[in-house]
Amino acid sequence: MTEMMTAIAIEGGKGPAEALKAVQIPRPEPKDGQILIKVHAAGINRPDIIQRMGFYPPPAGSPETMGLEVAGEVAVGAGRWKAGDKVCALLGGGGYAEYAVCDARHALPIPEGFDYVEAAALPETVFTVFANVFEHGHLKPGETLLVHGATSGIGTTAIQMAKAYGAKVIATARGADKAQTARDLGADVAVDAGAEDFAEVTKREGGCDVVLDMVGGDYFAKDLDALKMDGRIVFIASLGGGDVTLSIGRLMQKRGVVTGSTLRPRNADEKARIAAAVEKLVWPWIAAGKLRPQVDATFPLAEAAKAHAHLEAGAHVGKIVLVVG
Fold first, then answer.
1. Which residues, 6 or more positions from 316, have their beta carbon under 8 angstroms from its beta carbon?
2. Using the 8-state DSSP alphabet, how is residue 78 labeled?
3. Model confidence over 207-219: pLDDT tens digits?
4. DSSP tag of 175
5. How many CB atoms neighbour CB 248 within 10 A?
6. Chain segment 163-184, per-residue pLDDT in tens
7. Nearest 5°: CA angle at 250, between 244 and 255?
8. Which of 112, 95, 102 is nearest to 34 (CA)?
């Protein structure tokens, strides 16, 4: 291993996609309990864009460079991992690089039959869906999940995980083609949100027990309208606006719960707990063929700027992944 490595930095500290540049920086050294991963692929996520714009700084102790998930080979082992093991891992940052370090407890084995690109598309989305839909949202088999942004990385994963768990899924997307893609992934009902009122469609289907909302804004009132008694609305982003109008009386009538969370700032022990739960529940679904990440496009590491621009354009279906080396 060389002492220096190629990584992606933000020129000027923040800026547009074009600010992403390949630079040479020192290879990270793993601390006690950490593994060093030779990165072969790194997932692109919307929080990366927010960080690039200067609004989502990495947690204390995490690399300044971006990248929340990778897949590769263990170069320096720790915990249950030894050199040569193939893993995918959740990171606090630093994934857009030739090497990355992470808490050994935050790495999972690459599922059989998966290549590095597919494996790199798993950790951030699977952990996020598990924590928000299954833990905060308390989704149960037989219940109905309403998921917005159905063809995003999170959306495509949420559809498959909810179906694997035995839930009914109503999905929303912009455009008839994207709605059809959601159906192809297993959604029982898919709504073109640009042409139909998703709340009315959901109510015709009997309502929903859990909403996974990454839109916010004017979607919130419709979420509440579509909600069954004792339903739960879980926010993971606010792409349509961070301020919403809440009818307290309507929430009380529904006995509803409104919650939300972020993944990156959670402490190491909490992420380790989620990783163990994901491996126990979700990895068998992957082995059974019930969950497969949808990879829309790949870009070489040096073209991270193009990858970000592609994500921001919004036409993608599933994940965008950087290929390293």
1. 151, 152, 296, 297, 310
2. B
3. 999 999 999 999 9
4. S
5. 7
6. 999 999 999 999 999 999 999 9
7. 110
8. 102
User: What residue type is 266 in one-letter code?
Assistant: R
Residues near 142 by Cβ (< 8 Å), separated by ≥ 6?
A: 166, 167, 168
Nearest CA to 181 out of 144, 218, 204, 153 is that of: 153
Q: Return the DSSP state at 17.
A: G
Q: Which residues contact 104 (CB under 8 A, 6 or more apart)?
A: 33, 34, 35, 77, 78, 79, 80, 81
In the block, residue with structure tokens 């992957």: 286
pLDDT digits (tens, 9 = 90+) for 120-142: 999 999 999 999 999 999 999 99
pTM over 0.90: yes
CA–CA separation, 148 vs 158, rounded Å?
10
| Residue from 97, 114, 11, 62 nearest 263 by CA | 62
**Three-state secondary structure string covering 97-160:** ECEEEEEHHHEEECCCCCCHHHHHCCHHHHHHHHHHHHHHCCCCCCCEEEECCCCEHHHHHHHH
